[in-house]
Amino acid sequence: MTPFTVLHAVAAPLLLDNIDTDTIIRVEPLFGGVPRDQLGPHALAALRFRADGAEDPGFVLNRAPYREARILLAGDNFGCGSSREGAVWALMALGLRCIVAPSFGDIFYGNCFQNGLLPVKLPRAQVEALAHAAAQSPSALMTIDLCTCTVQAPCMAALPFELPARRREGLLRGLDELELTLARSAEIDAFQARDAQSRPWIYLKTKETL
Fold first, then answer.
1. Please, what is the average pLDDT of the chain?
2. Which strands form 71-74's sheet, in the order they lie side by side?
C-alpha cells in the first residue's frame, strides 16, 4: 500500500447525500472478474453515464479539469449500504486518493484505511466551503496534509481534521492492520517471553494440544 503523507490535487465537488456502495460500484464487475486496478471505468457508472452508455457531460467527473481529480468532496453518509470493499477499489482505480465528507458509512470508512484511501470527516459547512472554492477555481490544487491533519484550499485557512491514531499511522506508513501488527512482532515476542516466565501454566502444552 502506497504511504499517504501530503496530497496536492484537484478536488471535485459532488455534494450528493447517501451515495451508497452499489452506486459507487455495481456488483457485476466485481463478480465478472475485473481486476481491482481496472475497476475505474465502472466506478460511479450510474452517475457518470446515461442510459445509452454515453457519458453525461453534466456530471462533475466527466468535465475537465475534474477528470484528473484525486480528491472528492462528497455529501453526508458517503459509502453507506452494503459491505463492499470493491467500492474503495473502484474509487482508487478512478484515481481518487481522498474523500472529504461530513460522514461516511461505517464499513466503507474502515475499508478505506485498509486500502490506502483517506476518508476525512469535516462539518457540512466546511465541506460546502471547500466545494464552493473548487467550483470557483476548478484547476486550483487543494492540499490534504496527513502529517498535520489539515485540509487547505487556496485563499482559505487550513481546516483541521481528526483520525484514530492507529488508522493515521497505517496510512502514513502504507500498512494495513495486519502489517501494522506484524511490524511490532519483536514487541509481541518479547511480551510473550516475559509472560511465559511469570505465568508458565498458561503456556503448558498437553498431548491434546500438540
1. 92
2. 118-121, 98-101, 71-74, 6-14, 141-145, 150-152, 159-160
DSSP secondary structure letters along 114-142: HHTPEEEE--HHHHHHHHHHHHHSTTPEE
Domains delineated in the chain: 6-162 (3.20.19.10)
The average pLDDT across 154-170 equals: 95
Residue 71, H or E segment: strand 71-74
Question: What is the tens place of the pLDDT at every residue in 83-129?
Answer: 899 999 999 999 999 999 999 999 999 999 999 999 999 999 999 99
Q: 90 near 43, Cβ under 8 Å?
A: yes
Residues 105, 110, 113, 117, Cα dihedral to 10°: -20
Question: pTM for this one?
Answer: 0.85
| 157 CB neighbour count, 10 Å cutoff | 8
